[in-house]
Structure formats: structure tokens, C-alpha cells
Amino acid sequence: MDYFLQLLISGMAVGLIYGFIGMGFAMIYRATGVVNFAQGEMMMLVSYIAFTLAGTLHFGFWPMLAATVAISVLIGLVVEVLLIRPMLGQPVFSTVMVTIGLAVILRSVVVLIWGADPMPLNTGLSTEVIRIGPAGLYPAQLYALGLMAAVLVGLWAFFRYSRVGIAMRATANLQTAALLMGINVKRIFALSWALSAGLAAIAGVLIGVIYDVNPGMWTTGLRSFPAVILGGLDSVFGAALGGVLIGVVENLSEGYIGRGMKEIAGFVLILVVLMVRPYGLFGKPDIERV
């Protein structure tokens, strides 16, 4: 039982990071209908930026996180304006290819600037394991839980009560109707990329603190993609829950079945779920009149 609880709790901790990345995927897809395959690389880039801030300015965890999120939001806006906005009106496939090209470029840029060796992200956080019953977690993993709760509450309030959040929901439902109602759709697209980049920054900092910073971090973005498929590509909150479920399934499968299962367990899970609910657990089916 103790072994099961250890796998469960540590899987939830990893799943929270998947959830942040998955929410970034869903944020962009919900607003624009485009899957950003550079989300993992964005997360890796801002993690290295956090490493530079911690090393040169000696920021602690919270100041570094705030600065990294702010820088990441600016990067997201620049990417949207320079690379994505010119693709408006073009086939979705073309825009997706732009994100794939961006992903390849970011991988090369990171290695060119920072090198290929793993480096610790020192923020002054304790590395002592905190015992929760039979399970042990690092302080950064507990911070991930608190940050996820705060982000979910903040996004819920933003989408429900703010004018911009309501405009984003309207744009996600039907872009043409949103334009007719006077909503600046281009601005909404830019905001979705900015918010997605901010979520990637939180994930990047947490991964860097827990596992060190390295050029292979982008694969975490690929492994978190099942989370957004599981929760529903158009559901930001579903992606968060999907990330936790994927993290737990990966840990349990590796713990009870064997090594190597962790890499494929998430994809096996979404294959099973999609056969029952093709639009994910919390996604909405597209209904078209013919």
C-alpha cells in the first residue's frame, strides 16, 4: 500500500507539470484552432532564461518565476505577431508547420547559446524531501500543487467575469460571430499565445528546479500532449486534469509493469479513451448541420 501511495503522489506531482503544458496547448487551440507543436520548446527556452536569471541576478524562486513568466509572455506575443499572424486565412496545416519549424529552431538556439550539458537551476529552494505519510515530495513539487490551484482559480475567474475572458470564450465558440460583435479577434489570438507562453514558463521553472535544465526538456512537451487530448483539445481545465491522470498512469505502469512503460502509457490511455469519447473527457463534440 505504501508503494502504491508513493507512486500515486509522485505521479500527481509530475502530472501537474504536464497539466501546465497541456493547458498551454488547449489555450491556443481553443482560441485559434491551431495545435502549437512548439509548446515544449517554448517551455525549454524559458527554463534556460530562468537559469540565466538565477545565475546572473541571483533571484530567488518567486522573483525568478515572476520575471520568467513576464519574459515568456513577451516571447509569446512576438511569436504570434511575427510568425502566426501572417498565417491568418491560410490552411491550418500551414500554420501547424510553422510551429514545427519554430520548435526545431528553438532546439538549435538553446544548444547554441547554453550548450548541451545538464545544469542545475538553483533558486534557494530546499532540496530536502518532505514526507507526506509514506510518500516523499520535494518542496518544488508542493509549490506546483499550489500554483496549479491558483492558476485554475485565476483562469476560471478570468474567463467567467472579465470582459476579455468573455471575449475569448466568444471567439473560441465562433470567430465570425465574434468579429460581427466588434471583438478584436487578432488581439484575442495574441492574448491566447501570451497566456500559453506564461503557462509554459511555470512548467519550465518547475522542471528546471526539480530535474535540472537540459536540452532534452522539450520531450516533456511531447509527453504532455496526451494530457490535452485526454482532457479535450478545447478544454483548458480538462487539460489540467488530463495531465494529472497521465502522470499517475505513467508512474503506476512503470512501477507495476516495468521500465519503458512510462513512455507509452499515456498514449495507450488516450487510444482507449478516444475510442469511447473521440473529443476527450471534457471536450465538446462539433455538431454541423448538413
Automatic annotation (TrEMBL):
It is a multi-pass membrane protein. This is High-affinity branched-chain amino acid transport system permease protein LivH. Its main location: membrane. One of its GO terms (biological process) is amino acid transport. It is found in: Cell membrane. Signal peptide: none annotated. The keyword Transport applies. Keywords: Amino-acid transport, Cell membrane, Membrane, Transmembrane, Transmembrane helix, Transport. The gene is livH9. GO terms for molecular function: transmembrane transporter activity. GO terms for cellular component: plasma membrane. Pfam families: BPD_transp_2 (PF02653). The keyword Cell membrane applies. Belongs to the binding-protein-dependent transport system permease family. LivHM subfamily. InterPro entries: ABC_transp_permease (IPR001851), BCAA_transport_permease (IPR052157). The chain crosses the membrane at residues 6-29, 65-84, 96-116, 136-159, 188-211, 231-252, 264-282.
